[in-house]
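To assess whether the prediction recovers the assembly geometry, we first specified each molecular entity separately, as shown.
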Amino acid sequence: MPRRRDLESICLIGSGPIVIGQACEFDYAGCQALKVLREDGFRTIVVNSNPATIMTDPGFADRTYLEPLDLEGVSDVVARERPDALLPTMGGQTALNLARELAEAGVLERFGVELIGAPLDVIQRAEDRELFRDAVRSVGLRTPNSRIVTDLSQLAGLATPAVVRPAFTLGGHGGGFVETADQLRRQVEFGIAESPIGQVLVEESVRGWDEFELEVVRDRKDNVVIVCSIENIDPMGVHTGDSVTVAPQMTLSDHAYQELRDAAAAVVRAVGVECGGSNIQFARERDTGELRVIEMNPRVSRSSALASKATGYPIAKVAAKLAVGYTLDEIPNDLTSTTPASFEPTLDYVVVKFPRFAFEKFPGADTTLGTQMKSVGEAMGIGRTFVEAFRKARRSRELDGEEIWQLADSAHPWFAAELEGELSELWLGDLVADDFLKLKRAGHSDSDIAQHCDATEEEVRARRRAWGVRPAYRRVDSCAGEVEAASTYYYSTWGEADEAPPHGEKPRVVILGSGPNRIGQGIEFDYCCVHAAQSFRALGYEAVMVNCNPETVSTDYDTSDRLYFEPLGLEEVLAVCERERPEGVAIQFGGQTPLKLARGLEAAGYSIIGTPFDAVDLAEDRERFGALLDRLGIRCPAWGIARTTAEARTVAERIGFPVLIRPSYVLGGRAMRVCYSADDLGAIESPVLIDRFIESALEIDVDAVSDGHETYVGAVMQHVEEAGVHSGDSACVLPAPSLSPTRDAEIRSIVRTLAQALGVVGLLNVQLAVVEGSVYVLEANPRASRTVPFASKATGVNLVEAACRVMAGARLSELDLFEGQSLGHVSVKAAVLPFARFPGADPVLGPEMRATGEVMASAADLPTAFAKAERAAGRPLPVAGTAFLSVRDADKRAVVHVAGGLADLGFKLLATAGTADTLASAGLEVGRVRKVTEEGAGPTVVDLIRRGRCNLVINTPQGSGARTDGYLIREAALVARVPCITTLSGAAAAVHAIANARSEESLSLQELQERIEHETRAA
Amino acid sequence: MSGFLALEDGTVFRGDSVAAEGFAVGEAVFTTAMTGYQEVVTDPSFAEQLVCFTAPMVGNYGVAEGRSESARPHARAVLMREARGPAWTDWLHERGIVALSGIDTRSLVLKLRDGGAMRAVAVAGGGSAEQAVSVARSQPSMAGRALAAEVSTPRPYVYADAGLARIAVVDYGCKRSILRRLAGAGAAVTVFPHDATEDELLRFDAVVLSNGPGDPEPLANEIAVVRDLIGRVPLLGICLGHQLLALAAGHETFKLPFGHRGANHPVLERASGRVLVTSQNHGFAVAPSESREATYVSLYDGTVEGLDFPLEHARSVQFHPEAGPGPHDAWPIIEQWVEEVAYAQAA
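The predicted structure of the complete assembly is given in tokenized form:
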């Protein structure tokens, strides 16, 4: 059946900000879907609040709305655009939940919008535990024995151990494994609170059973194919997002596997997914073969992205085509082009996925893995054997915390056997070709070997190469070589023939990706890499991508001319360069990851395209940078370097407290802290940088592009939170509202001077602080920054494209960029924080970045944009009710203004003793409430928050850490989902927004950009 | 111990011997099934072949008697990128099968795909590569080879003695899964040698023409018997059985360049427009045809994957509805056929 002719326009919902459980995979899915829908002539409308996505690029859809993904936001878009259909299966749980809300609120019916991909009843059957259990039973299969609980009184008679699973939450959030009746009670209480429908499932524990996932695609003719089987090495009990997984499954016989396959098809049919991709999870008892169906997602998922990358079968693309009427046999297999998509990929390699955690960012948080997902990213390795793939994936994580993964005792013994025999001591001089080959085929890197033979990585590499042991590259072709494929998707292995690279006439650029998502380095950098690939291709280059993150758009084989799915280590990147012989290697788009490789690449004779590495070093090496600023007459905070505790004391006393301490070469503020006195400094063991910490400064972020002579200042952004809160966690406003034209001009001039002095060719990000009329440079990063996508979308100028053009040799003047701000609108970027995932860690903003993602909103004025951004970040500002305030002494004077504003808006004020005294003496009416640690009668503030008596919490920390009063307040607010603001500047912005936000018609990005262009022309 | 594979074109692939010593000659072919290595090796259709697995690791889950598709391995040698033992490799060793691990299987597959299936020699242990190549070249080609006699049962036997319908299976190299599916569908099953006569077979309610190795064309006697059976007793052909029915009904068969072997091949059911993901193992095929009786078509190359002559109650499929290994999508073909036969008997 061909494309449906009765549909003309389709609205696609994205997944919003990156959060734990929903990451780049939905940008990948959305992009694929939009691509095929547009090819088929549909008018496409996309709604997503995440500016760092490729799918929200103006060229990807006919209409793009960066709007909050809530009922109101999407309803507005639907009302304005009147699409014929809504495709909710590409935007994760967020989109599916929204589709359900829209349908149940009657919005879809009112505007005549058809839900395609997953109709309402399918969503309900897959998501509602009871309906799902019935559907599974109807085909003779079983889910774990379970009971649905909506109230604590229903727990009688339930056995433990058990698993608690809340309905409709992200990544199993709010659930967990419990062993005692007491734990059961507590977990159920938490789960009911977290579930938007107040429902949890308490089920039979299958902890320790083997865990499998199947990716299924079905079309409207009832054709079903299994795209991929995935086996979890960590058995049941650990969320699949936190598990090390392998594809294809390794331990099942044909008979056992076919049983799973049959069960998967039966479940898809029973749930009624008519056309699209689904993911089904099974638990299987190893000895008896007993099966339990654990869960099904009637949509593309993190696992389907992994399966697509693992097999070369683009599930999202196929699912989008199925949703608009095609059947599987009508859709060609992209990689072979001669065979249809109605087949099952077969793999002649093994794929392993490793999760990437960020526990080091959340001191105090429980690091035990369970049914609630905690990892922030993942890396995938491809090899011809399990161990080869396993080790490639493992080292692709670029771990900077401690290794917490170990093979579970309950894991299948096959994995234990494969992983036996880690490296022992070696003598480099003894190793001959065969030894090297054996080591490499087992997945050991040169650096692994070096560590075991007391040599450097370079020495090992030189010796190995002298023996002629070099990697061979193999294609991922979805069919194990059976059908000729034009695939340009490669991985390396050893001791085999190389599949000849398609060397064209065009010059090549190797673009280094950003590896697994982590806090501080996520989708923003993938966005930049994808744009770099697109831009270089448009400039007549062949773009060659190296990356190992299976979630991303950059690892879509469509994005570049050739994709190398490889760890971003020097060894692997040098090998790719040797094969590709690029004109240049682009290191400025992938965050910190490629920078670590730059020196080695240059040493091997490869040139860096754009800003040379020395400029990066000049900016990062504080002594060199300090000297440069001195020479240029640019101010920076007083600073010094200390190697010992004593030195730190001397330096801090010289420059004056408070000081900011950090190691150099860090991203995301890793291990950064503010010290107010010598006692705070702690023990210093390795060299640290000590900066004077400028309090109450206005923090400014600038993104610019330079050709080495001229500089285009793309965006001057102001942080909402003051200096001291990591820029990645702070909300950010464009244009900067508090800068006078003089300061703005001064900042632009500083950035220009710096760009030229550093020798930047490409992107430059500068962070500055403005205090009492003076401008200080905090840092300069001659590479893509986290704010590039936001700035590009807000200004309508694609900064990455501009950067690529100058990197390729163009002069900035040829680019015809207009520098100036659109006066008509204000854009706000707000950070999304994962605190709810890490109970035990203090949910307070500070110099260490903890945000996983961001949202963007634009409006005619700041309050409206700010309020919308907060809504998009999932923290809608209250407009009435009770506000609780408790601030540290330093903030007492300034809190009066904020509290006064709230009182004027009709908020009832509540405060703890100290803050209440301050407010009362300023003449404000305030109720008093006792702290937890305070003796007395009546409820404590934590009780009130828990009971929902507070609508807004403003609490600035008096020192951080668990068990302080402040911590207990913040944690209670987090659990009760009450907006909790931990800086006064944030509070002031919120009050301003509550007071002045207006309702305003949502405009699409295309309309906004037309307006900008119009204004530009007028100027 | 080291070993190597020599192809007739002179290419040599080095590996490690992981099972029996010695050498094996045959046609080098590959299968893309990711599971079911024991089923593949014991499938009589692999007679006289050296089978290369595209699956990266083979032997992971050991062996079990119930998985064998016949009494012994029929593949002459097993070629793997990475063999896992000891259960699997010991099993091969005990059965005298040459098996090589560490072979660059993907290069071998690309070579066979582009150059077609080749005569080859697998050597476990030392030996001269040139000599091996010349031995490979001296082998007869698979085209024109009648192999059913070598793998068929020497005498009739009863597999399942009671059922809704009495079904005779002609064993050209029959897989146990076929018998299991028939019995499972409620049939009484008797197995006959490849040269069973029409008189023997006509005593049954229906006849299954089984799978088997080699080229269908030289099986002149078998084709003649099938021709005689058409219209006189309900027939179901599977794989080689399909090719025999096709030849008996005037269709043409030919040798595929490198065959269809795997568990993921899409086949279109023309009547419904539905696609089955099927288990396949054939080096010869029925030439593409627009004729009405062509019920199933390969979505890879358009070859005829199924025939149906409703008036004669004769039908066949090229793929393996019994699976073993592979997906169970086509199980109903056998079940429904048994049901129809039983229904016709009852009527």
